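hiii so my PI (J.) wants the whole complex modelled not just the main chain, which honestly fair. so below is everything: three entries, each one labled with what it is. i double checked the lines twice but i was tired so who knows lol
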Amino acid sequence: MQHASPSPIVWPDSLDRGEPPSLAVWKFASCDGCQLSLLDCEDELLAVAGRVAISYFPEATTAMVSGPYDVSLVEGSITTAHDAERIRQIRRQSRLLVTIGACATAGGIQALRNGRDVDGFRSIVYAHPEYIDLLAESTPIADHVPVDLELRGCPIDRSQLLQTLAALLDRHALRLPTTSVCVDCKARGTSCVMVAHGTPCLGPITQAGCNALCPSFHRGCYGCFGPMESPNVPALRTQLELLGLDGAGIDRLLDTFNGPAFAEFEQEPESGPP
Amino acid sequence: MTLAQRWAGVDPGSVSSEPAAEWWLMRAGDLHRLVSLLTVEFDEVFGPVAVDGVIRVRQIHSLADLPIGVTEEQETASYRLHETGTALRFSYGLGPDSLKSIVHPPRSPVWTMRRQDGSLVVDPALHGTTTRAVIGARACDIRALEILERTQTGGPHADPAFTARRSELFVVAIDCTHPAPTCFCKTAGQGPAADQGFDLAVTELDDPNGVVYLVRAGTDRGRSMMFALHLGYAPPRQIERRTRALEEANRDFIRELPNDASDVVRQTDHPQWEVVAERCLTCGNCTAVCPTCFCTDMEDRVGLDGETATRTRVWDTCFSQEYSHLGPGPHRASTAARYRQWLSHKLGTWHDQFGESGCVGCGRCITWCPVGIDLTAEIESLSLDPLSRPSEEMP
Amino acid sequence: MSTAVSGTTSPNDPLLAPRVHEVTAMIDEIPDVVTIRCAPIDGPPSPFQAGQIGMVGAFGVGEAAISISSPVSEPRFHEYTIRRAGSITTALTRMRPGDQFWVRGPFGKPWNLDLDGRDILIAAGGIGLAPLRSAVYEVLKHRERYGDVTLVVGARSSALLLYSNEYEMWREHGLAVFDTIDEPEPGWSGRVGFVNEAVAALDVAGPATSALMCGPDIMMELTAQRLISADVSPDHIQLTLERNMQCGNGLCGHCQLGPLIICRDGPVVRYPSVAESLMVKEL
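here's the output for the full assembly
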């Protein structure tokens, strides 16, 4: 399940004021890209270096401080029984758990295997498939433990991560957009790739937050931020057909990063008298 | 004395309702001199620029920045730019940008607030004295600018940022000889020729001896600029050609806005709202390209040091759920209610709030809706008695 | 066509600029509802009229439109009664004495209290008494100008009756207070029932009565209908509305209700101007 956050996030009272909060960064099935986004924020991280205690972050430091942690950033999806147990342990040790990236919030690219022949994939991909103990599906963290906040995207947006840290450090509310990528495209002055070039684009049904990165490079949106607050997937599907995509092509586009999340909105949009 | 100094005492609001008697004739070289003069006299000059296959409004630095020999095809959810090989510079319909992007930009700083010695200190954004000019404004855009102005300055408290950007804007209008098939300015109340609200207005005409530009002034500062360029007056023959070109353009409209649209959109329980909701993506493209949609949100952000916070006024859209969020959730949760809010405000309750319609017939929302929802078609459907409609169209 | 520039255009419009305030007291009212008592750090509180709103802001979080609920005649401070709901109200209700925040305003149309000689009926549901409190004090201050003055206040339970420790004082100053709760509860011997039912039980002198209301939309709708059937003129029913507001001065579009821009044309409106709109779902 992927949840839009129509309500602003409010940090719990339990976060103490004054002391630097302890931060842990955890990895599950993923490419490390989202953790690297955090490391990418070099200059900004220096500004917060004294204000946050990085207690567990194997990508960045060898120091390992045992929990509990004020904040855990979790990257990756749950793909093994061991993962499922480990995330429960992490949840118990974390006052706030923030999932980062499409793998953690929606199952990620590896969720492409969901509903397909996992044993077949395993025997093709691995030399010794007998060593690989996989669950049938790649699932988001929120399917296993309660999640306080989701930062979406593949990878996550640097600015959203920094806003989250800033909000956390000063216990400010955090408002992340729930509108479409189109809102950002128009605000930054990018011409619509679908209307002006006929390029298939998931922007109208995808949540803003990346500052419309792909369309600014003349590419259609791949939907890596997952569904916006009220995604009309069937209506966009009809338009993508008019642009020449067949059903399989549309499925592939929708499935790539947030397949299960978009699939929830494949039915007709909600109705009822206004 | 610079021209800017000479204009300092001129009231920019004193727009004459009748075109001036003088018609000046310009050729491409004169147009070049006009743009150069604008760039000298104004801090920022905006004009049409072809970017990524679309005519956008961008800051320009010389006539060379403007497209030449291009035209476009527009339809619902489709826009394509083509080369024509002509020497014409304004032979295309509207792109997605209106004057809104200049006077009411997507992001506008409001203040910075900081903690200092245990107290909050507010530094309001300075709206500055930047002078701006725009070349290429169409009649519908000028009309839209007035509508937008009424929303932002007509109430008890005028927005200072809008006021600063609007009040000194020097407008060079272009008479619209190439309306797009998505336009319907004729039935929305003006155009295709600019008849007011400009400093200078230009008609571009193809001519066996090269492209000519007929110019008239709408204000004293526009007239001053014409005198400064030492231009000759246009011969009557060219003025007749202009009249014919505009008559031709005025015949080109396929779409129309009916007179009773204001009543039609007030039918809050019409089943058509549900029908259009099946197609509407609630993406907000229509409100972004609409030259009069003015809704904004306030974005408050804290710096990483925790000591400063900035407030920015940002475009918002009534198609978002957050827009109407109150207490437990969005007031307008359904897509039908959000589309109804947009259209019934634009064409209906805008009259109650501001004494006029919010639509100028530019058709941008028709072209730039990714699924091609056409408000004129929606009005037509809403005009039908719901009980007499064919059953297969019922939701 | 002439251009419309009738408003104040000064970038220093004092109502658009935030005034930094300091919390002087935080008063717990009912669960999740707190009253902030505060004063500007740069001078006396801005004058206001009963029913007007302030855009109340928390550092780095944002603003919410809140009615000023203290007496108009109180020169030392303003009070804002706030229910903890979203991020902004949570940040505001977490403040402590000495903390600073900001206010813009006051904005909007106030209660019309030029009702000399008339009976006044004030009806409030839940936290809806907050926007009416300054009107209560204003009416009591000029009590001799009015006929009978009555307050009907309802809540889901007795613990949720707002400002209940002030009712006795209000009674002493000539306000007939009828409090009612939705469901019977142990130890409660007072009225049980909704506000509109309590209003129905009163002997309202229809044509001589003016009503002021605030509460959930449904409460106001039912109460208005009850009053109209008791011959109260619809024009003499005023109510105050709550909508999402981002600017407070008619520029941002958020608070529209049909033809009205609530921050500009309200928050206090006459019933006939919204009767139709309130009946339309999601308008």
